[in-house]
Structure formats: C-alpha cells, structure tokens
Write a structure and sequence with these properties.
It is globular, with a radius of gyration of 22 Å. Strands 1-2 form a two-stranded antiparallel ribbon. Strand 5 and strand 6 form a beta hairpin. It contains eight helices and 14 strands. The protein has about 350 residues and is low in regular secondary structure. The chain has two domains: about 120 residues, Herpes Virus-1 (2-Layer Sandwich); about 240 residues, Zinc/RING finger domain, C3HC4 (zinc finger) (Herpes Virus-1). The termini are far apart. The protein binds zinc ion (8 copies).
C-alpha cells in the first residue's frame, strides 16, 4: 500500500497542508480512500477554518472518514428505490463529531434532506453493514442503507442517548439500539461473522455462538463482559488476558495486537509504533508532529487523550510541540505557573525565590 504513504498526514495534529475534502463525489472505494482525509478535528476547540459544509461525515455516527472508532471507510449509497428524490438541502448539518464518544450521532433529528445530498448519503462501511434491515450482497454491496439512515433519525442510542442509532440488540424482545462506535464502548458483544450485537444485559447469549465468543488468548468465553472486540479481524480478547483496560475509549475502535495500525497513516509499516496508554490506539513515531526518533521509555498518551487536570485544556487544542508534564496531566502553561507557586501554601512566590522554602508559609 505504497500510495497510502502520501496520505500520511498528521491525523493527530493540525493539518499541515490543505486537507479540505474534495467536492468530487466518488463511489469507488479505492478512489475515496485515496482522497485526502478530512480534517477530523473540526469539532475540537481549535476548529479549522474550513466551512462546515465541506466536511463529509457519516449520516449515522456523524464522524468523518478518519475516525478512531474503526468504522472503516465512508461509502456513498444511492437510494434503494426510485421514489424519493430529496432536494439537496441548504440547511447545514451539525458539525461532525470530533471522535469524542459524547459527540457520536445527532442531538436533534437531522433534517433528512441534509443527510441525503447528491441523491444518496455517506455512511461508514461498518455503520451501514451492522444496521437493522441492511442486506449484505456479494462483493460487499449493501442494500437499504438509505432506509437505515431514515430510521436512525428517530432512534436513540442506548449508550450515548443521541440519534442515529441503527444497530439493534439481537436478543428477542430487547429494544436497545446503538451507533457502531457505541456498540463497543457500551461493552456489548459483537459477532463480525453474523453482524450480530448482544447488549450488555443479553451478553450471556454470546456463549451460544461457540468459538466465536472465545478469547484468542485463553481459548474460552470466560468473563464475557471483559471481552474486547477487534474491529480489524473480529476476534475477541479478554482485557485481562492482554493486561490492558476495558474503558469505553479503549473498547471503541479497538484493534488487537495483530491488527493494530497507525491511526495517522492507517495501513503502513508496523515498525516503531507507539501505543497510547489511555485509548490503546497505535501511532508511528514518525507520523507524530513533531516526529519522535525513538520510542519513549515511559508511558505515552496520544494528543486526543491529553487533558490538563489544572485548566482542562485538551491536547488537540494545543500545538503538537507543546510540552506536557506529570504523565500528560499538566499542560505547559500550568506547569510554568506551578513552578512559581509554593507547593505547600499554593501562593505565588516571588519568581526569583527558589521554592525549596516559600517565604510566605515558612
Ligand atoms: Zn459512521
Ligand atoms: Zn451512541
Ligand atoms: Zn439486549
Ligand atoms: Zn482470555
Ligand atoms: Zn484483530
Ligand atoms: Zn503512521
Ligand atoms: Zn489516546
Ligand atoms: Zn493547564
């Protein structure tokens, strides 16, 4: 996948070139993959100057193509029947989500016409394939995706309580629906072979699926709620068997050790990959901005997962070169402020005083 390398722009920081998505609409999977990735930070505080309408997002999960949640590529789906041709909408859609699990989907029922531009809609492959009523034909063609989008505008996700949920729990009588990213975040069981989801309350039914519910390390179903689902190969792993956590942010878009690819360049070399301690996503050292020459010896957090515990600033709101302290829990500015404060009385001391002993509290 050599041509992918030209696409290796910093997903984890400010775009360095003009990465506004092209207006041309291609339905071929290869072509759409080759397009520059839309800036997926538009919802972050440091919003780009791109007008919102130029950002293409999924009509179900409302994330852009390059998302951390493993939805695969955005695909264009035409109407499944001739009858409804919605006029292109002039009313703007809400800003796409910024990969924060709280911004998946839609808070208000989105105007249908706004979701259907160019007589069709854009939906991630997995968001579409898992949806109720969508049929998978040969050669990965999917049918009735437009109908799923229409029903999603009325369906709340049981996990994030936002609209656009189309993936039902398979248990009889259960009325829970999820977005694709929320399926994993909620701790539901997912079967990639059968495209079947079982919500946390009905997860014990996964044992009926036999080997598919077995952990790839210990070869048993064991504690089903502890299973992580790999969005790459569909295998399951116990968090405990891999000695990692199972937080919602780790579960969503999780990739097993065999499938882990760099979130910036996607399929690429599998050398020098840094794994974020908070979200378990991988990044090449050379795909970061600024690039790192070697793997750090202590734990590392990706920019999305850095939040200053003092001022609340997020990593994506600061330049990639910003320094962080205390395991990425204190931003540069607060650290500077801290160093002029007495650690005992928290009062600012004369900066010229060395703070071994503050003159105010001693
Ligand atoms: Zn989606
Ligand atoms: Zn959701
Ligand atoms: Zn259920
Ligand atoms: Zn296991
Ligand atoms: Zn995998
Ligand atoms: Zn990379
Ligand atoms: Zn992270
Ligand atoms: Zn701070």
């Amino acid at each position: 996948m050599d041509e992918q390398k030209s696409n290796c722009e910093e997903n984890d920081s400010e775009p360095t070139d003009d990465s506004a998505p092209s207006k041309q609409h291609v339905s071929s999977e290869e072509e759409s993959k080759a397009l520059p990735a839309p800036d997926d930070m538009s919802g972050a505080p440091a919003a780009s100057s791109d007008p919102p309408e130029s950002i293409r997002a999924c009509a179900l999960c409302n994330c852009v193509e390059r998302s951390l949640h493993g939805q695969r590529e955005l695909r264009h789906f035409g109407p499944s029947s001739e009858q409804q041709t919605l006029k292109p909408s002039t009313s703007p859609l809400p800003q796409p989500g910024n990969d924060d699990l709280s911004s998946i989907g839609f808070s208000h029922s989105p105007c249908l016409a706004a979701l259907f531009n160019d007589s069709g809609c854009w939906v991630h492959h997995w968001c579409a394939a898992w949806s109720e009523g969508v049929k998978q034909l040969e050669n990965e063609e999917l049918e009735n995706v437009d109908k799923a989008v229409i029903s999603g505008t009325q369906q709340l996700c049981d996990y994030c309580k936002r609209l656009g949920a189309t993936i039902p729990c398979h248990a009889e009588g259960c009325s829970r629906f999820y977005h694709f990213p929320c399926s994993a975040a909620s701790g539901s069981f997912q079967s990639m072979k059968q495209l079947v989801l079982l919500c946390p309350e009905h997860i014990e039914k996964a044992e009926e699926l036999g080997e598919e519910s077995w952990c790839a390390v210990c070869d048993s179903a064991g504690e089903l709620t502890d299973l992580l689902f790999c969005t790459g190969c569909g295998l399951h792993y116990h968090a405990a068997c891999l000695e990692i956590g199972a937080t919602p942010i780790q579960r969503a878009g999780w990739q097993c050790p065999e499938c882990k690819v760099c979130q910036t360049c996607q399929p690429g070399e599998d050398s020098k990959m840094l794994v974020c301690d908070a979200c378990d996503k991988g990044y090449h050292t050379f795909c970061l901005q600024p690039a790192m020459d070697s793997l750090p010896s202590d734990l590392w957090k990706c920019r999305r997962c850095r939040v200053c515990m003092e001022c609340g600033v997020r990593g994506l709101g600061l330049p990639g070169s910003a320094q962080w302290f205390d395991n990425y829990a204190v931003c540069e500015g607060c650290q500077r402020h801290r160093s002029t404060m007495c650690s005992v009385c928290s009062k600012a001391a004369n900066p010229s005083v060395t703070l071994q002993c503050c003159s105010i509290c001693h």
